[in-house]
Amino acid sequence: METLWIIFILLVITRLCGAIAARLSLPVLAGEIIAGVMLGVLIGWIGKDWELFNLNDSHHFMTLADLGIFFLMLLGGLEMQPQELLESRFTALSVAILAMLIPLVSGFGIAWLWLPSSEFQFAQSFFVGTALAITAVPVTIKVLIDMKMLKTAIGKLIVSAAVIDDLLSLILLSILTAILNTGRLPSANDIIIIFGQTFLFVSLVYFLGRWLVKPTARYINRLGIEEMVFSFLLILGTIFAMIAEVLGLHFILGAFAAGLSFGRNTINQKVFNDVKKKVSAITTGFLAPIFFASIGMEIELSAITETPLFLITLITIAFLGKILGAAIPCYLFGYSIRQSVSVGVAMSSRGVVELIIAGIALRAGLFEVSDTSSSQIVENLFSTIVLVAIITTLVAPIGFRLLLSQQAKKNRVNDGGGNNLE
C-alpha cells in the first residue's frame, strides 16, 4: 500500500508541474524537478517521521528511480540513430569535440581550485567537468522542431554535433564511474584498462547489434505474439546493461546501446515507431517523472545562498564553454557570428544526462566525504550541478530563439521548407 501512495503522490504532483511548465513553453522535465524540490521542502517541513515521506530511504522508490534512468537511456538510444552520425560533416565533429573539451577542462580546473584538498578531489573535479561537458539532445531537437529549423543546414549541424557530444559524454561517464570506484587519479594503467573495457563493450555491442539483433527481432516479430518485440528490446537492454556492469562500466551504457542497436530497419519503420511509442509512454508518462522528482528532492536550496559565487561561476562556464567551443569551428567553417553563437547556445542545455550523472555520483557517495564534510562547496556540490542543469535547460532555448528569431519566422512562413543558412 505504501508503494501505491508513493506512486500516486509523485505522479500527480510531477505531472501537474510538468503540465504547467509546458503551458509556459518550458521543458517538462524542469517542472517535474521543481515538483521534487517542492516535495523535498514539504518533507523538511513535516519531518521524516511520517513513513510515507521517507522516500529516499525507500527501496521501492529507489528501484523506480533506477528504472527511470534505464528507460530514459533506452529511449535516448532509440532517438539517436547511428545514421544521423554518418550525415554529419567534419564541421559537426569539430564542434562536438571542442564544445565538450572546453567546458570539461574549464569545469575541472575551476572545481580543482575551489574544492578542498582530499583524496576525492580529483573525482569531484572530474565530475564537475563531465557534468558541464554534456549537451541535452532531446531539448535541442524540441526547440529546432518548434522553430521549423530541424531540416535546415544549421539545424542538422546542431543535431549531429549534439549526438556526437552525447556519445562522447558516455565515454566520459565510463571514466567517471571508474574514478568513483577508486576515488583517486587514475594511473596510466588504469586509463588503459578503462579504455580497454570501453572498447570491449563497444565491440561486443557492435557484434551483437550487427549480427544477432536484426535476425532475432524479425524472427520474434513473425511469431505474432502480442508485445513480444517490445519485450525483446527490454531483454536486449538488460543483457547489454549486465555486460556493461561485468566490464566495470555503468548499466546505463547498456540501456543506451540497446536503443541504439534497435534501429528503424531492424524490422520495419512501423514496428520501430510502435515500440518507440511504448517506450516513450512508459518513460515520459511514468518512470521519468519519478526519477526527476527524486533528483529534485535531493536539492538543497541553500546552495544558492551558501555558495552563490561558485554557482554563478559554473553557470557562466557552462554557457561560455559551449558557446566558444561551438562558435569557433563554426565561424572558421564559414558561418556568421550570429549563427556560430546560436549553435553554442543551442548546445548549452544539459538536461537528462547531466541529471543521471549527478544521481550516479550522489549514490556513489561522492558528496559525503568525511574529511571534507566541513566544506560548504562539497556539501552543496550536488545541488549546484542540478541547478546548473535546470538553469541551462531553461535559458538555452530562450537564447536560441532570440538569436535566430528572424530566421524562424521565415521558416514558419515557408512551413519549414529547408532553408539553407550557410
UniProtKB/TrEMBL annotation:
Bilayer disposition of the protein: Multi-pass membrane protein
Transmembrane segments: 6-22, 29-47, 59-78, 90-114, 126-145, 157-179, 191-213, 225-243, 249-267, 279-297, 309-334, 341-362, 382-404
Gene3D superfamilies: 1.20.1530.20
Ranges in a coiled coil: none
Entry GO MF terms: antiporter activity
Pfam families per the UniProt record, alphabetical: Na_H_Exchanger
Annotated Cation/H+ exchanger transmembrane domain residues: 12-404
Subcellular localization, as worded in the UniProt entry: Membrane
Source superkingdom: Bacteria
Keywords: Antiport, Ion transport, Membrane, Sodium, Sodium transport, Transmembrane, Transmembrane helix, Transport
Gene Ontology biological-process entries: proton transmembrane transport; sodium ion transport
GO cellular component, one term: membrane
Entry protein name: Sodium/hydrogen exchanger
Lineage of origin: Bacteria, Pseudomonadati, Pseudomonadota, Gammaproteobacteria, Kangiellales
